[in-house]
Each structure stands twice: as C-alpha cells, then as structure tokens.
Amino acid sequence: MELHNLTPAPGSNKKNKRVGRGPGSGYGGTSTRGHKGAKSRSGYSRKIGFEGGQMPLQRRVPKFGFQNINRKEYKAINLDALQALAEAKDLARITVEDLRNAGLVAKNCLVKVLGNGALTRKVEVVADAFSKKAEEAITAAGGTAVPTTK
Questions:
Q1: Class of residue 143 by CB neighbours under 10 A (exposed 0-12, middle 13-18, buried 19+)
Q2: pTM
Q3: 58-74 pLDDT per residue, tens
Q4: d(Cα 4, Cα 16) in Å, to the nearest integer?
Q5: Which residues contact 104 (CB under 8 A, 6 or more apart)?
Q6: Which residues pair with 94 in a beta bridge?
Q7: Which of 15, 92, 106, 143 is the most exposed place for a label (fewest CB within 10 A)?
Q8: How many Cβ atoms from other residues are within 10 Å of residue 108's Cβ?
Q9: Is the dihedral of CA 74, 78, 83, 88 positive or negative?
C-alpha cells in the first residue's frame, strides 16, 4: 500500500446533489423545491416558532413574574436535625461538610440554620447563614454559631 493507491472505503463518499443544472440532471426546473410560494424562493427562512400564521405559543402564553439573578437560595436545616446529628456521631463541631456526609444537603447548597426544635448539646455550628432564633438557641446551649465567609 502506497500513498498513490489509497482510496476511500466504498460507499463513504457520495456525490453532491447539484440542483438547477437543466433537465438532463433530473433536478432541473423547480430544483426539488416544488411550485411557487415562499419556500421555493431563494433566501427563505421561517421564523422560529412559526405556526403557519396561527398565533405562536410564545405569544399566546402570558408573561409573568420576576427572576432575581442575584438571589441566593439556602437549604434550611433546623436545630432538631443538628441535635440528632450531634448525638448520632458525637460531634462537638458541625460543618456544612458534616451535613453533606449525613445526606442532609446536596453538594453545592448554601445552608441556613433555622430555629425549629431544641438544641441541648454544646456545639460549634459552621453554616452559611443563621436565623436569629437559631443563633440565640445555639449560644444559649453554650455553643457558637460561625458563619462561613464566601
């Protein structure tokens, strides 16, 4: 095998359909475009969402609401969940990583500790945010609430 006798595999190369080159080609006349109408003209392109003149879906459905691009969404963790985790694993310091390992929060979630339930153990809690009630309950139990800095 030399460079001069290399050929493509049979059937891998197809001839281009050359339209509009006279009747002998089989693709002359209307050049496979049918007769008349916008679709037969050069430069035709249909609008995205065009429904044959019917009012398109994106214009039929009303727009509403507001999406704040700066919104931070927190996963809420209550004090009773922290109490249960601290007792089960005998922790003196609970971080977001501990909550992830316990399956309470997903990988990239921001965590906010809320004050539902009671905390009896002295625990240092590291989270992204705290409610006032949760922070008071943690300090009342002798622990500390440490916000993470991002």
A1: buried
A2: 0.57
A3: 999 999 999 999 999 99
A4: 24
A5: 75, 77, 81, 85
A6: 125
A7: 15
A8: 6
A9: negative
